[in-house]
Design a protein that fits this description.
Blueprint: H1 3-18, H2 22-34, H3 36-58, H4 61-67, H5 69-95, H6 99-104, H7 109-124, H8 127-136, H9 148-181, H10 192-206
Helix pairs in contact: 1-9, 2-3, 2-9, 2-10, 3-7, 3-8, 3-9, 4-5, 5-7, 5-10
């Protein structure tokens, strides 16, 4: 792949990650509600899921889903069910008396692991992310160039790293904007994430 083609690929990735989507919404909402550290851990989980999507699309699973729409629909419903489950858990925590203490306390290993898994599964159970990889990456693979597997690996690694960079920027911006907009924690801030998860679930099912 020539340098100009790879630069075009990076610009196309930047354009894709600048468009509003479920991953951006999740990172922004997490950064605003839970702070930059939790949002960055969530972004790492999303990056891990993107790497999985790259591998699955290379293995042909995306093509299998296209030829079997019922499988695609099952993945959609599984993703929506998971997002509704997260919304219910977060809402339950928001209504509990311990929520204020847990929010003010430093992040624990358990909360970091939960944020990582949340980001990973939210992206992994979004079939659109898998279909995006399967349709976008092959357009930049040169058939008569170096081994196609190696090209695909490089393109996939660039996709994951560029996506992580954008998510990290979104996490920092959301956390800083949230701090500036409120002098003290809003009593409604704890309901931001549950609302986002419900909206993402509805978009996943109807999209």
């Amino acid at each position: 792949m020539s340098d100009s083609t790879f630069l075009m690929y990076l610009l196309a990735l930047a354009g894709a990650f600048l468009l509003p989507g479920p991953d951006m919404a999740l990172v922004l909402a997490t950064g605003a509600a839970r702070g930059v550290a939790t949002a960055l851990v969530t972004a790492l989980g999303i990056a891990g899921a993107r790497a999985m999507h790259v591998a699955l699309s290379g293995a042909g699973l995306a093509a299998l889903m296209v030829t079997h729409p019922e499988a695609l629909q099952w993945v959609k419903w599984a993703g929506a069910a998971y997002l509704f489950y997260l919304a219910a858990r977060l809402l339950q925590a928001a209504l509990s008396r311990r929520d204020a203490e847990e929010t003010a306390a430093p992040a624990t290993a358990h909360s970091a692991r939960a944020s990582l898994v949340r980001g990973f599964l939210t992206n992994l159970l979004n079939p659109k992310a898998l279909l995006f990889c399967s349709m976008f990456l092959p357009q930049f693979v040169v058939a008569n160039g170096e081994r196609m597997g190696l090209q695909y690996l490089r393109l996939g690694a660039a996709l994951v790293l560029v996506g992580l960079l954008f998510d990290a920027v979104y996490a920092v911006l959301a956390a800083r904007l949230a701090r500036r907009m409120r002098g003290k924690p809003s009593p409604y801030g704890k309901f931001v994430l549950p609302t986002v998860f419900v909206l993402l679930a509805g978009r996943l099912v109807t999209g």
